[in-house]
Amino acid sequence: MTRNTRRRFVKTVGAAGIAGLAGCTGGQDGGQSPDEGAGGDSAETTTAGETTGSSGTETTTIKFWHAMGGDIGKLIDSLASEFEQQADGIRVEATQKGSYRETLNATTSAVQAGNPPAIAQIFEIGTQLAIDSGVFAPVEDIIPEDRVNFDNYLDSVLNYYRIDGTLHSMPFNSSNAIFYYNKDAFESAGLDPEAPPTTFQGVLDASTELTDAGAVDTGTTWPNHSWFVEQWLAEQNQTLVNNENGRAGRATEAHFESEASKTVFDWWANLHGEGQYLNPGIEAWSEAQQAFLTQKTGLLGYSTSSIAPMTEGARNNGFELGTMRLPTPGGQRQGVVIGGASLWTPKSLDSAKQDAAGEFLAWLTEPAQQKRWHTNTGYFPVREEAITQLEDEGFYDENPNFRTAIDQLRETEDSPATRGALMGTFTKARTIVEEGYVSMIQNDDRSVDDVLGDIDAQVEDALAGYNQKVN
Amino acid sequence: MATNTDTATETAPSRRLRTRLERAFNGDLFVHVALAGAIALVALPLVLAVIMSTQSTTEVYEVTNLGLGSAGLSNYETALTEYNLTRYMINSAVMSVVIVVGKVSLSLLAALALVYYRFPFERAVFTFILLTLLVPVPVRIVPLFQLMADLGWANSLLSITGPYIASATAVFLFRQHFMSIPESLVENARLDGVGPLSFLVRVLIPMSRGMIAGVSVITFIYAWNQYLWPLIVVSDQSKQVVQVGIKFLQGASQSGLTQWGLIMAGAVIALLPPLAVLVALHRPLLETFAIQQK
Amino acid sequence: MSDFTKPYRSTTQAGLLLVPTLVVLVAFLYYPAVETFRLSFFQTLLLGTGQQFVGIDNYVALATSAEYRQSLFVSVLFAAAVVVGTLAVSLFISYLLFEVRAGASGYLLAAIWPYALPTAVAATILLFMLHPTLGIVTHYLEALTGLTLDWFTSGPLAFGVLVAVAVWKQLGYNIIFLVAALNNVPETLTESARLDGVGRLRMLVRVYLPLISPTLTFLVVMNTIYAFFGAFPLVDLMTSGGPNNATNLLIFKLYRDAFSFNSLGLASAESTVLFGIVSILMYVQLRFSDRHAHYGA
After folding, report:
1. Interface contact B290-C10, CB threshold 8 A
2. Is B64 among the domain residues?
3. Which among C8, C21, C206, C237 is the top mutation candidate for probing chain B, defined by the most B β-carbons within 10 Å of its own β-carbon?
4. Which of B31, B162, B282 minimises the CB distance to C105?
5. Integer Cα distance of B137 and B180 in angstroms
6. Which of A155, B97, C29, C177 makes an SS bond possible with B132, Cβ 3.0 to 4.6 Å?
7. Which of A6, A13, A306 comes nearest B157 by C-beta?
8. Per-residue pLDDT reduced to its tens digit, B68-100
9. CB proximity under 8 Å: C 201-240 to B
10. CA nearest A28 in B: which residue?
11. Number of domains comprising chain C
């Protein structure tokens, strides 16, 4: 909470006699109030984000809307305030605007209303849509050239976000899918805790061993999320849609009826049929986590974004956690696709705010900040240097769980499949896939092939509808 | 009315059963038992929420752990201080009170006109007001947001109260209530030449205490529970309302686990003000809050 | 409606009294509604961006969509179940509350609190408690009765859970009105029946229900509106419309099309159609009650 917003808040409700109370609750930042300066009153009516005069120097306030809650949200707050301390005359108001979806909607509404945030975090699958909406400026035009050398950024990250040679947004929180497993459960089931399964069949076998030994109720879980399917297709070097995954032209066809896709869904549906997959619900990240951490399952498919908190969570629940690479069919490994989100800047910003946003983005992706970001969460550092430095410092030797994710990323071979798909209707495609899986595992089960046909048709329908809109 | 023709065709055992059931249904004990049972079922989620709000994250996940937990009141403390729920509660309270006062005042005036004035297109005006019940909030959001920006209201108290200070339900309820007020009273007022506003203040409002209490409760709860609109239109976190604050709690995770104890504590805290309003106003509510029609 | 003598005649004054309400409604409800109607003839990208006029394409898309027809069917079924369920349960509880001699206030407050709980918070908490594999309620249900409640994959179960939760959430609102209505029935009307020793159940059906019929009508209308518009957070947080669209209510589909699938134009058309459907239902309900409701006194 900042002094400027508090002042406006107080002014708004002051008439109702609440001023005193608000003053009390805002006490923690009271120490800063003396330098509000005499110019404060004239700034009362300006909205957040305007340039306001304060004790001689120009201060530019930029709003940063994101979707990170809890510990990660707090980390962003502290990064923002650190930046303020070292930057001259820039204030960053970081606000969580709910989920990714809510952040995107709030941002678009604000852009249309003419009062946008300077930086908005948009999930990876909103990339095509954000470009098509035409309301954002490419990030490479905003960052001062001398501040950033993009050669130094991770290839797989740049490959995802660079479209037609232009980097539209600043890669920020990038992750991919890995599996976590319960080492203690492995041990008590007579499995080698240092040799987790690497294949689809291996997961089923390990699950059976785990449940037979009574170590857990169900072998494995992960959110019913299309993201995992996308990863498994990439590992088999299978694109999700045509036209090089929508990167050589608008996607028009979906590839859910491909052999690669059938392999994935056959396995996943069978796993459920065998009672070895606990269905936590559609996109139910926290339920899946709960099932694993409370030791109902021995394995968990999840994002690398939570390695740090999950390792600690396992310890609190009395077991040791290991990380393993995404299991694949027959050990085929083309690589994984970047997930997470990137940071976007609206076109309509005035130049002072645009410059400030550029400064902040450049600072945020410096190795020092990226190292902190990486080690506290599990999201990748987007800079190669950050990884090298951490290696030199011995971080990965001390924290082998982090190494799995980095290895998996580095081994990824560049191809249209591993660059990830671009679709304007990605959110809808994901919903179709997830609902499709539910109909595969219902009691009156329809065959996997049958449902995949439906999924293909529905996704292609959505693609056609979208393409017709943008053409 | 007391005759019992429809049971004539029933067989004897079924009649006996029926009589026994009826006798049971008519006893006082039945009333208490049935009430207690029904209410226990209705209240179960709250009881569980209160229990969980005192538990640590690990305890919440042990489904067999149904006792008060080791966290005590610390979840409440964390929610109120670290997650700023105190401030959000104040914001919500200001918003809700403004909406209640505004809505009750405007609706009383409108109902006064609808019931005690003869003017052209009365019925049409009333229908025009009622139809607004049918416009769902989610779709209105986009144009409304634009309008707020054009008015310069975005991010202000006005934006979260203005759109809600008129309502079809309140006008409807006051209108129905006014129509049930005995004509003789109206007649007296007319003979005495009392003006419309003093008629409202001196006659109608005192006679509508229960209805005003009822509308206030419903409006307060409705306002207090706003979520989607404040989330979109209020961009300063310090001006945000409590329901959005609870949403922030849901994102709070500790060592990878959602902090359900904290969420439950937040939910219980946010439930207190509307409950307090209910408790404070339940008497007039019970006694006079009814829809009558002449 | 009776013809009673209205004491005031000034059209200007009436206008002045109505102006505040009308201004607010026109600016904040009618204007956005008209804007929505306009948007229903456009297609859009992100929210309102990239608008293109497409005529009645959006309506044609709805008319030919099997998914939309199913959504319509599910919504009507849901509304019927919620209206009947809510009224039946709340009438039962209200009548008991009315009949109880001791502790009425305590019981009343205990019965209506869920109404004070925001729907979104209620949905979050209940999802946690009712989760098929992880929830505390499902755990005990299985432990005590052996029943598993896998409403994540079973359409009918998901629908049932949703109806139960929606009814539970709306009980308080109904009870408030019903208890007040029962309390308002003049003793003189019920005395003779009581003296005749009419049983409790028959008193309710024969004496009270006709006398509180205006309240019942009001509640039927409000519950219908709630079922069509207000149950959105429950679907959004608990079932996301699934499984197999079994809980894909119109209001949820509309919201998802607008905010997740970025088709605000289509969602606007859905909203216009929904407005039409609920208006017709409301008209029928009011017509029916005009003819059948018993207005006492």
Report:
1. no
2. no
3. C21
4. B282
5. 32
6. C29
7. A13
8. 777 778 888 888 888 888 889 999 999 999 999
9. 201-202, 206-207, 212, 214-215, 218, 222, 225, 228-229, 232-233
10. B81
11. 1
Tokens of A361: 């983005």
Distant-in-sequence, close-in-space partners of C15: CB < 8 Å, separation ≥ 6: B113, B119
Nearest to A438 among C47, C52, C153 (CB): C153
By the CB < 8 Å criterion, does B217 face chain C?
yes
Neighbours of chain B (3+ CB pairs under 8 A): A, C
CA distance A251 to A466: 10
Residues B105 and B174 in one domain: yes
Q: Please report residues of C whose CB lies closer than 8 A to that of B263.
A: 124-125
A434 burial via Cβ count (<10 Å: 0-12, 13-18, 19+): buried
Would C151 be classed as within a structural domain?
yes
d(CA A325, CA B181): 75
C-alpha distance from B241 to closest chain A C-alpha (Å): 12
> CATH for A177-338+426-470?
3.40.190.10
Partner-chain contact B256 A21, CB within 8 Å: no
Sequential pLDDT tens for chain B (294 residues): 344 444 445 566 666 766 666 666 666 777 788 888 888 888 888 888 888 888 887 777 776 677 777 777 888 888 888 888 888 999 999 999 999 999 999 999 999 899 888 888 888 998 899 888 877 666 677 788 878 878 888 778 888 898 888 888 899 889 888 888 887 777 777 777 778 888 888 888 888 888 888 889 889 988 988 887 887 788 777 888 888 888 777 766 655 667 888 888 888 888 889 888 888 887 777 665 555 543
Classify residue B279: in a domain, yes or no.
Answer: yes
Write out the residue range of the structural domain in which residue B39 sits: 5-53
Full domain range(s) for residue C81: 62-292
Which residue in chain B is spatially nearest to C198 when comparing CA positions?
B2
**Does B163 lie in the same domain as B29?**
no
Q: How far apart are CA C63 and CA C60, in angstroms?
A: 5
| CB within 8 Å: C154 and A132 | no
Give dist(CA C201, CA C95) in Å, integer. Answer: 9
Residues of C at the A interface, defined by Cβ within 8 angstroms? 43-50, 52, 131-134, 152-155, 240-245, 256, 259-263
DSSP-derived 3-state class of residue C232: helix
Position C11 in a domain: no
> Which CATH number belongs to the domain containing residue C94 in this structure?
1.10.3720.10
**Partner-chain contact A12 B156, CB within 8 Å:** yes
Claim to verify: residue B98 and residue B139 sit in the same structural domain: yes
Chain C touched by A286 (CB under 8 Å): no
Residue B127: how many CB atoms within 10 A of its CB? 11
Q: Two tokens at C284? A: 């029928």
3-state SS string for A235-263: HCCCCCEHHHHHCCCCCCCECCCCHHHHH
Number of residues that this document lists for chain A: 471
Same domain (yes/no): B138, B281? yes
**Do B173 and B35 lie in a common domain?**
no
Hey, are the CB atoms on C131 and A281 less than 8 Å from each other?
A: yes
State the Cα–Cα distance between residues A4 and A135, nearest whole angstrom: 28
Q: Give the CATH number, domain containing residue B87.
A: 1.10.3720.10
Which residue of chain A has the CA closest to C263? Answer: A466
pLDDT at A53 over 60: no
Domain boundaries, chain A: 177-338+426-470
Least CB–CB distance from C297: residue in B190, B286, B294:
B294
**pLDDT digit of tens for each residue in chain C (297 aa)?**
444 567 788 888 888 999 999 999 998 888 888 888 998 998 887 776 778 888 899 999 999 998 999 999 999 999 999 999 999 999 988 888 887 766 777 788 888 888 888 887 888 888 888 888 888 888 888 888 877 788 888 888 999 999 999 999 999 889 888 888 888 787 777 777 777 777 777 888 888 888 888 889 889 988 998 999 888 888 888 888 878 888 999 989 988 888 888 888 898 899 889 888 888 888 888 787 766 654 433
**Cβ contact, residue pair A442, C244, below 8 Å:** yes
B130 shares its domain with B25: no
